[in-house]
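Exercise (ungraded).
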Amino acid sequence: MTQAAVTTQSAPRVVLSARGLGKDFSGFTAVNDVNLDVEHARIHALIGPNGAGKTTVFNLLTKFLQPTRGQITLLDTDITNTKPDRVARMGLVRSFQISAVFPHLSVRENVKVALQRPAGLATQFWLPLSSLDRLDARADELINNLGLSQYRDHRAADLSYGRKRVLEIATTLALDPKVLLLDEPMAGMGQEDVQMVADIIRNVATERAVLMVEHNLSVVADICDHVTVLQRGEILAEGDYAQVSADPRVRTAYMGTDE
Amino acid sequence: MSAKSEPIPSEEISAHPQAATIRKVLVVVALIALLIAPQFLYPIFLMKLLCFALFASAFNLLLGYTGLLSFGHAAFFGGAAYFTAHAVKVWGWPPEMGILLGVVGAAALGLVIGAIAIRRQGIYFAMITLALAQMFYFFCLQAKFTHGEDGIQSVPRGELFGLINLQPTMNMYYFVAAVFVIGLLIIWRFVNSPFGMILKSIRENEQRAISLGYSVARYKLGAFVMSAALAGLAGGMKALVFQFATLTDVSWQMSGEVILMTLLGGIGTLAGPIFGAGLVVTLQNYLATSDFPVTIITGIVFMVCVLLFRRGLIGEFFASKLGRKLGFRSES
Ligand SMILES: Nc1ncnc2c1ncn2[C@@H]1O[C@H](COP(=O)(O)OP(=O)(O)OP(=O)(O)O)[C@@H](O)[C@H]1O
Ligand SMILES: [Mg+2]
C-alpha cells in the first residue's frame, strides 16, 4: 500500500524525449546518439564544456535545426519532422543563449507579443492597438513576478544584459509552456539576480518540465533534479548531481574549466 | 539590401508636450493642401503624384514595416491597371467595380508570387520577385486582352456609383484624393494593429517570434498580399486617371522606381514614401520638358540622397532633434 503511494507520487512522466539524436554539419558531427528523457515537474540540467553541443541539442529539440539522425517525442507526439513554430504551439518553448528580446519594444510590449497568440489577438489587422489593452493585466503580473515592474515602459534595448535575460524568461513564461528549455538563463547576471532567477525556475518547475543549460555548477547542484553531461556531442554521464560530480570522467572533462 | 538601419541613438529626447497637437495640426494642414492643391498645380500632375505616392506607401508596407525588399511590385501596380482598364472598357463595369477588380486581381497575384518567394531571404527574395514579375510582364506582352505594345487605350472613366461623372478633371481629382486618403488610413491601421505588432516583432527578432509560436511565413505573406492589393489600388486608379494601361507599368523599371521613391523619402515612416514619390514625379515632370536625360538625373539624385541621408529625407528629419521633439518615429 505504502509502496503504491510512493510510486504514484514519484511516477516519472516523460514529456519530452530524444532517441539516438544526431546532427552533422557538413561532415562534422556536432551531436551524436543523444538519448534524453525530460520529466514533468523536474529540472533537468544539460551541462558540458564549451562547444560540447548543448545549444545544438536545444536547436534540434525545438526543431530550429533538423536532426540528421534520431527521433524526438513531445507529449506522446512524434515531432521529428514538425516545424519550430508548431513545436512552440504544442507547448515546448525555448529561450536563447544570446538574449533574444524585441529591442525596440517596451518591456510590457515584449511580454504582450507572447500573450497575443494564445489570446487570439495576433491576426487582426483591422483592430486598433488599444484592443491589446486587455492583455495588460496579465503582462504586468508576469513583469511584477520577475521584478521588472520599474522597467515596464523601458525599451528592451536599454535594459542591462541580466535584465534582458529576465525579460526573456518572463516572455517565455507568458506562453505557459509545458516544457521550458532555457539556454544559460543566468549567464551575465549578478549573484543577486542569479538567486532570484533560480527561485523563479524552481517555482515554475512545480507544474512543468524544465531543461536548462547552465555553466554555474552551484546553481545546478542547488536546483536541478537530474543532470546530463555532454562532451563532444555525446553523453558522458547522467544522474543526479552527486552521482555525476563523483564520476571521474566528468571530473577530467571539467578539469581546468568551471569549479 | 537590408531594410534595417542603425538604431536611433538611445539618448532619450522626450517629445515636446504639445507634440501630439502639433502633429495633428500637420495632418490637418496636409489634408487642406490636398483639397486646395488643384487651384495651384495641374490636377493631372497631382493625380499622378497621388497614384505613385499610394504605390510607394504600399511598397513601404512591405519594405519598411515587414523588412522584405520586393523587386516585382510593378506586376501588382501594372497588373491592376490592366484589370481595371479591361473591366471598365470591355465589360462596361462602373469605375468603383473596375478598381475593386484591380485590387482583388493584384491581391491574387500577390498571393501567388508571395507564396513562392516568402521563404527566401534578402537578395534571393528580391530576385525571385523580380523573376516572377518579369514572367508576368511577358504574359502581358503576349496576352490578347492587354493589346501588347499598344496597351488598353481610351479607357472611359465612367460614373462613380452611377452618380458622379468622373470625366471632368476636378471630379476625378477629388475621387483620387479620397481613395488616396483611404489607402493611407488602411496602411496606418494595418501597421498599428495586433497584426502590425507581430510584424514588428518578426522584424525585430525573427527567431524569437518563431520560438513564441508565430508562423513567420504566414505573417509575411499576409503583409505581402496587403501590399500587393494596395499597389493594385494605386494602379487601378492610374488607369482611370490617364485612361490607358500599358506595359510601362508592369516593367521592371517601374519596380525600380517605386524602390527609389520609397528609399528617397525614408522607409518605415508613413510620410517618407509620399515625399519620395513627390520628389521623383516632380523631377520626371520637370526633366521631361528639358534636354537632360531623366534616368541619369534621377539616378544621381538617388545616389546623393542615399549617401547623405541614409534614412531618406523624411527618415532623417524624424531622427533629427526637431523630429524627435515632435514625437515622430521611424519604424526601421
Ligand atoms: N550551424 C552550425 N554549423 C556548423 N557548425 C556548428 C553550427 N552550430 C554549431 N556548430 C558547431 O557545433 C559544436 C557545438 O556547438 P554548440 O553551440 O552546440 O556548443 P555549446 O555546448 O552550446 O557551447 P557553449 O557552451 O559555448 O554554448 C561547435 O563545435 C560548433 O562550432
Ligand atoms: Mg551554447
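Further reading is listed at the end of the chapter. For now, observe: The first strand of chain B starts at residue 159 and ends at 160. The beta strands of chain B are 159-160, 164-165.
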